[in-house]
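Minutes, project check-in

Agenda point 3 was the complex the collaborators sent over. CS summarized: two entities, 681 residues total, and the question is how they sit relative to each other. Sequences were read into the notes so everyone works from the same version.
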Amino acid sequence: MRLIQKIGGWFDERLKIGGDIREMAGHPVPRDTASWFYVFGSAALTILILQVVTGILLALIYVPSAGQAWNSLQVLNYQISLGWFIRALHGWGSNFMVAIVLIHMVQVFLFGAYKFPRELTWVVGVFLLLMTLGMAFTGQVLRFDQDAYWGLGIGASIAGRVPYIGPWAVNLLLGGPIIAGATLSRFFALHVFVIPGLLIAFVGLHLLMVLKLGVNEWPMPGRIVRRATYLAEYHDLTHKAGVPFVPYAAWKDIIFSGCVLLSIAACAVLLGPFGPSGQPDPTIIQTIPRPDFFFLWLYAVLSLLPASAETPVLLIGPVIGILVLVALPFLAGEGEKSWKRRPIAVLTILLLAVALGTFTRMAIHAPWSPVMNAGTSEPIRSQFLKGRTALERRGALVFQAKQCHNCHSLNDDGGKRGPALDSVALQFTEDQLIRQVIQGGGNMPAYGKNLSPAETTALVAFLKTLHPEGRTPAQNASRAVALGEQQDTSSSPPH
Amino acid sequence: METKMTETMSETKMSRRAMLLKLGALFNAAIVALLGVPIFRYLFSPVARGQKNGYESWLSLGGVEQFPAGQTRLATYRNPVADAWDGETADIPCWVRNVDGQKFQVFAINCAHLGCPVRWFPQSNLFMCPCHGGAYYQDGSRASGPPERGMFEYLYKIEDGKLFIKAGEMPTPRAAIRGGGKSRCA
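CS then shared the predicted structure for the full assembly.
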């Protein structure tokens, strides 16, 4: 023990940082900040360290070449001892990092920690969030599989919509005319050098500011932040009633970080690494590209926006979002900190959480995507065929063969792009069905040129049988009168 | 004591060394600016190259007989601008429609919405996109879904019984307007 002290003393005599470290560790913090609510920032830092370490380990094997990257991931997954585990740690670490950074941000927002004098700490934090998301996206690209390839295509298509400089932006993003070797190389440089370098520098700045300005005190309802008096009040909180950061607050940080690391390791062991999915070969078009979890909401937004609003929302939306986040501490730098007295802040968080959650959930099911193989993989159940006439069953065949099933579901089988047709006969009369099939409309393609009259007749005959038992299908009352015939009742299937 | 300090301060302000320090800083700034030019040109070379010589050139998709009249088939070509390490990513697919034995249409694989690979369904004569649900008719015009326009179309020509298209760049809305616009034929 004495020897260790001696060696430590020798180094400190030359390094002269022992005093600074002791001062940093022992700096007084407000007593009630030694709380489990104040552990997310340090947990994010812990995951960052994990990501740097596992990232370096992966870089020992990974080949950033469009022709070889996918193969090198296969080697990592299956040939290198525990390569799969390092990949899984890095992948799950990425998900946890985005989640913890978001939770940290929500906590800081709800506790009013962005107010005077910590405005710049918040602004740096906003950049850290953007860099974290940038790491998540570029990391997904480095997992150079089909999803990464077509994800880049989506990125390029968005860049291509920028007015005036669109085509140049695409070339700059891709490093050439197409998604290829140069594209992967530049995303590798971004993911491994540019963004991590900035990230580490900004984390240092962020931490320095937390140390110099002190951690935000626990917000008490009614304790108002004023520029003139805040610093003196905070000084009282820390120096009269404060506790040293180590060990009073730090033990919770350390325990929580350990739990997070353990959770990441558990996910990695139990759930394994992410992909890679199919080879990044653009000629394999039997693929359904999907983004990673934290970009699913964006995928939903891109599918649901009206076409005319898409480009403005895509190009202006992020700018407005970032401006609002950066401007927040300057617009609300004083005043009430406690979330108990800030209903709009709480509602904003709830609204964002519900919106993002809803979009993410929708994107998991992706009802807007046609089920590309419904014609072969999702048969029409016998309940829709039993007791039907030959013509009606012929119509069911047309329904299946002409990709109607890709967008329309029967008994929840098939696509959800268009409305479910289980009871379409209740809503549309025969004439309306014929018109809809032939002319399309309401976001349905017109099938007039693609169906023979016989096929249309059969299809409509089948559609007329789609209604709940015991309910009368829609009928045009004037038709019988105009044609001078009996009401057609043959459309109800015999039961 | 106070006077001496003021003297030193003013001395520093006026001194030759302070002047030299400023000159040195200026000198370095000039060097950095000078170095910035090649760095900028290096970084923007993908743009400059596309602007100067153009990425697109005439490429053969093979004999016309591979594309029977009235049918739409998948064809692939090797991108004209490719590096040795591009692997399969430089193999680009496209849809070739032989309209009537005389007239052709060659569509980019990329959906006009956000670039996902569209698939051809010969039974219903529709192209469908798996991502956001765009659909197109057999002539490439928009049928439904989020795309604002029809599919991207390559210029084509037939020489010596072979089908050539002018391609080499991933089509995006504005690039397509700059290059071969919709339904222009050679």
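Noted in discussion: Chain B touches chain A through 59 residues (CB under 8 Å).
Follow-up: revisit at the next meeting once the mutant set is ready.
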